[in-house]
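Take one protein record:
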Amino acid sequence: TTANVFQSGSDNCGTVNQVSVLPNSFNCANIGANTVTLTVNDGNGNTATCMASVMVEDPDNNCNQVVCFDEEIDHLIGYVEDLGLNSSVERALTTRLELAAYRFCGGSSASTVISSLESIISYAANMSGRRIPSENAGYIIAQVQALIDAIENGTAECCSGDARALPPANPVPEAEAYLLDVAPNPFSSETAIRFYLPEGGPVSLEIFNLQGQRISLLLAETLDAGYHTQSWDGTADEGQSLSAGIYLVRLRTEAGVLLKKVSWVR
C-alpha cells in the first residue's frame, strides 16, 4: 500500500497526501527487490511522482510449493470423465486439458498455455447449469484458475519430466468439441445454428441436402474463439424456398468437419 512506502510530508501549500503506488500487488515471481512508482499531491493541484524500491518477502515459504501441472491436469481429466457428461462435452474438456498439458510440458510460452487454460474456463462457464452441473463447472473453473495462478507465480512445473504426447489427431471427435447445435429442430420459419470455437480460426457453415448438394453457404470467414450463432430460414442461396425435409448443417474448421441433421417443416 502507499502507507508502506510513504508516511508523511509537506510543501509550501500544506500537507502532502499519498495518492497511489504502482504496482501494488505482487506474486511469487516478484520475490526480492521491486521498483514502484509513488504518486502524491498536496490537495492544491500540485502532484509529484518518484521511484521507490520495495522488498517482497515470503515469510511462510508459500512460494516454494511446487504445483505439478501435468499431475493436476490428469486429476482434472479423471474428474471430468467421472461426471457422466455428454460425450461431446466431455471430449471438449478433456481434449483442451490434454492440449494445455502438452503445451506446458513441451515448453510453450506461458501466454500460450494460459490461453489454452482460459478457453477451458470460458467453455465451462458457458456450459455451467446447462450441460455441466453448476457445482462441477465451478470446481473445474477454480482448478484451472489455480493452474493459471501457478504459471504466473512461477511455481508450476511439469513433474513427469517428459514431454506429453499430443492428443490423438481424430478430426471428427475433435470437431465435436465445437458443440454444433441447431434449435429449434424441427423448425418451420427460422432456426438458430450455434457453435463454439475453443480457438479462433477460419470457419465455414453450409447447408446440404441428403444428395450431397450444397444448398446454402451461411458463413465463410475467420472468427474469434467463443460462441457464435447463425440463423437459417429454410431458403437456398438465391432465396428460393426449399421443400420440407431433412437437411445437413456442415461446420468446417481447422479441426475437421461436423454434421448436424435439421428438419425443415412447412
Residues 117 and 146 are 10 Å apart (CA to CA). The mean pLDDT is 81. The two ends are 67 Å apart (CA to CA). Residues 172-264 form a domain with the Immunoglobulin-like fold (CATH 2.60.40.4070).
